[in-house]
Sequence to fold (178 residues):
Amino acid sequence: MAGPKLKVFRAQFGFYDTVVAARSQAAALKAWGTRQNLFASGDAKLSKDEAAVAAALQNPETPLRRAVGSNDPFQLEPTSLPKIPDAPKAVTTKRAAKTTSASSKRPPADRSALDAAEAALRRFDDDRKREEADFRRRQDELDDAKAAAQEAYVAGRKVATAAIVKTRDAFRSAGGED
Fold:
């Protein structure tokens, strides 16, 4: 008896196109490790690429990847890197030059309020670090006191148990019964 029919779904994650063969959209989302419904937003869809479908069906419920924009086969660990286009060259126009020169005439912004706020945050963080260190020190003291109390209890219990054994032996020797 054959299992449920698998469908092949496709989505882009970062620099990679991915495909996965799954029983349903929910199963595909789970295989991709996302809870966001990529199908509702249009970011995922059924794949019609025959090569992608064939590769995904050979590895059910396992996402396969390839670099965005490449025609490489889909793989578990693709070896190619995405092709990133060259950055456009800056075009200098009279308007851009005017904006640059006009903005360079402004005096620098006053950082004093920002510096004060950052210093206040650093002081707040430092206070918290000291507080955490004090908590750790106090916890260590409590742990030491607890360990000492446990040792004293164990030693005292041994003495009390030995006294009971000795007294019970004396009681039995004198003719007593438990």
Summary: The first strand starts at residue 7 and ends at 13. Residues 7-67 form one domain.
